[in-house]
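User: Just a sanity check before I run the rest of the batch. Below are the structure tokens for the first item. I only need the designed sequence back.
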């Protein structure tokens, strides 16, 4: 029994080296395109910090509209450095421009809001 050889009656088809290389190149190209699209989506989407900064500025804008007494001020609020500037709008005596900007710890601007209000 040890010397008996088994004959196979069928052939197994295999891929050539060129076919394997071409399929690997196609897979790499598709992966590269997918990673580029994913990186663009991540870069263009707003982060949670930007949403928080925008919401903080909206709340501050509502407060600033009610009492626009402070002209220029920089302070820290909710892990953001807030810059508030209130100035006359284009030399009109009754119009004020309120400019709010939120920065992170690295001094990168996360959100900005401007509004012109009427002050009788």
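Assistant: Here's the designed sequence for the first item:
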């Amino acid at each position: 029994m040890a010397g008996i050889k088994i004959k196979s009656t069928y052939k197994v088809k295999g891929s050539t080296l060129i076919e394997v290389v071409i399929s690997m190149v196609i897979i790499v190209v598709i992966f590269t395109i997918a990673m580029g699209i994913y990186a663009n989506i991540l870069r263009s989407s707003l982060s949670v910090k930007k949403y928080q900064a925008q919401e903080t500025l909206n709340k501050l804008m509502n407060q600033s509209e009610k009492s626009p007494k402070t002209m220029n001020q920089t302070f820290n609020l909710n892990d953001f450095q807030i810059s508030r500037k209130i100035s006359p709008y284009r030399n009109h005596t009754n119009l004020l421009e309120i400019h709010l900007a939120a920065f992170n710890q690295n001094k990168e601007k996360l959100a900005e809001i401007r509004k012109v209000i009427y002050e009788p």
